[in-house]
Design a protein that fits this description.
Length: 364
C-alpha cells in the first residue's frame, strides 16, 4: 500500500516534536534476525511476520516494530538517561482483517531512565501532547499488577511460572487458573497417565521419537504432570481474588484505592500499588487528569509480550475502522534479555501517522 505524502508529513511533525523533547533520531534495519524475534515473542509472531531466508545470515524477518533493534542499539552503550526517536515502515500480515494495511508507518519515542514513575509519565504525556485536539480516548493498564498477583498466591513455583507465561494469552491463562483451582475436571487420559507413571511405567518408551523434543525432556514433562497431580488446588478465595482483579476497571485514582484493598490479601501488590501512586502523581504534575484517566487490569494483555509494566493506548472512539492511534508501555524485562542479563529501565510508545491523518481528515 502506498504511503501518502500527508502521512509522511505527519510523521515528520511527530519526529520534530519528539526531538524537541530531547530524543536523538536513530535508524533501524528493515531486515532483522528472525531467531532473535522468535526467541523473544515465540512462534506466535511468525503468523504475523514476513519471513525470508538469507543464504549468509539465515532466517530473516521484515521488522514488525522498532523496539527490539532500538533496545539492541541502546544496550551497546547503556547510557542513561537516553531518549531516542525513529520513523519508518513496519510490516505485519493481516490475515483476519484484510482492510488494514500490512505495511504502515510508525513514529516512536523510547526513554531509558532510572525513575520509572517519572519516565512512564513523560512518555504518556508526550504522546497525549502529540494527539492534543483530536477526539481520542486514552486507556491505561499495568501488566505488573497481574504478575504480582500471581506471585502472591499459595501454590507451587511451577504453577506460578505456567500462569506467568500466559499473562498475555487471556484464554490460556483462564484455562490454567480453572485447572489449577480444580474448577475444571482432570481429563481421564491424564489421570491414567499419572497412575501409570506412579507405578513406574513410562508410556510410549518404545515409540520412535519425532519432532524436536528429546526422550529426557519428554520424561521430565511427564513427571511434572505427576507432581502437579499431587498439589492442592489454588484456594477458592485466591481464585476469586484473581478473577475480581482481572475485572478491575475504572478511573485511575479509584482503581488505585481498590488495588490497595486487593493488596491486603495479595501482598506482592503492595509495591505495585506504591509505584502506581507515584506514577499518578507524576502524571498529574504534567497536567493529566488522573481522576478521569481510565485504568483496566486486563488492558494490554493481547499486545506484544515484552511489556511488563505500565501500558497505554489512544483510540478514536468514533472511528472503529481505525487501529489504535498510539500504544506504549514499559519493557524492562526485554532489556535484560537483549542485554544478556544486564537490564535498563525502559518505556516507549509508537504513533501511527496514517491513522492520525485519517482522523484529522474526518474531523474537518
Amino acid at each position: 500500500m502506498k504511503i501518502t505524502a500527508a502521512a509522511r508529513a505527519e510523521a515528520a511533525r511527530l519526529t520534530a516534536l519528539f526531538q524537541a523533547a530531547g530524543a536523538n533520531p536513530v535508524e533501524a534495519d528493515i531486515l532483522l534476525s528472525a531467531d532473535v524475534l522468535l526467541d523473544l515473542y515465540g512462534e506466535d509472531i511468525r503468523a504475523r511476520a514476513y519471513v525470508t531466508q538469507d543464504p549468509m545470515r539465515g532466517e530473516m524477518m521484515l521488522r514488525p516494530d522498532f523496539t527490539v533493534p532500538v533496545v539492541q542499539m541502546h544496550m551497546e552503550t547503556r547510557a542513561a538517561p537516553a531518549r531516542y526517536t525513529y520513523s519508518g515502515e513496519v510490516f505485519r500480515k493481516q490475515e483476519t482483517d484484510t482492510g488494514r494495511p500490512s505495511e504502515f508507518l510508525q513514529v516512536g519515542y523510547e526513554l531509558f531512565a532510572a525513575d520509572r514513575a517519572e519516565a512512564d509519565a513523560e512518555v504518556f504525556a508526550l504522546v497525549a501532547q502529540a494527539l492534543d485536539g483530536l477526539p481520542v480516548r486514552a486507556a491505561t493498564g499495568d501488566i505488573s499488577v497481574l504478575m504480582a498477583a500471581v506471585r502472591s498466591i499459595r501454590t507451587t513455583e511451577r504453577r506460578k511460572a505456567a500462569l506467568m507465561r500466559h499473562v498475555w494469552r487471556p484464554r490460556r491463562f483462564r484455562a490454567l487458573l480453572d485447572r489449577f483451582s480444580g474448577k475444571t475436571p482432570v481429563p481421564a487420559s491424564r489421570k491414567a497417565l499419572v497412575e501409570a507413571m506412579k507405578s513406574g511405567t513410562i508410556p510410549g518408551q518404545d515409540i520412535p521419537l519425532a519432532g524436536l523434543r528429546g526422550a529426557d525432556e519428554i520424561e521430565e514433562r511427564l513427571w511434572a504432570l505427576v507432581e502437579d497431580a499431587t498439589v492442592d488446588p489454588i484456594s477458592e478465595h485466591e481464585r476469586d481474588l484473581l478473577e475480581d482483579l482481572l475485572k478491575l476497571r475504572g478511573p485511575s485514582t479509584a482503581a488505585l484505592s481498590q488495588l490497595r484493598d486487593f493488596a491486603m490479601d495479595l501482598v506482592e501488590l503492595r509495591g505495585v500499588a506504591d509505584h502506581f501512586d507515584q506514577r499518578l502523581e507524576a502524571l498529574a504534575r504534567r497536567g493529566v487528569d488522573v481522576d478521569t484517566l481510565e485504568f483496566e487490569t486486563s488492558f494490554g494483555r493481547t499486545t506484544l509480550e515484552y511489556y511488563d509494566g505500565f501500558v497505554f493506548g489512544f483510540t478514536a472512539a468514533a472511528r472503529l475502522d481505525l487501529p489504535p492511534l498510539a500504544t506504549g508501555g514499559r519493557y524492562d524485562a526485554l532489556t535484560r534479555v537483549l542485554g544478556q542479563g544486564v537490564s535498563a529501565p525502559a518505556v516507549g510508545a509508537v504513533i501511527r501517522p496514517e491513522a492520525v491523518v485519517a482522523l484529522k481528515e474526518g474531523v474537518k
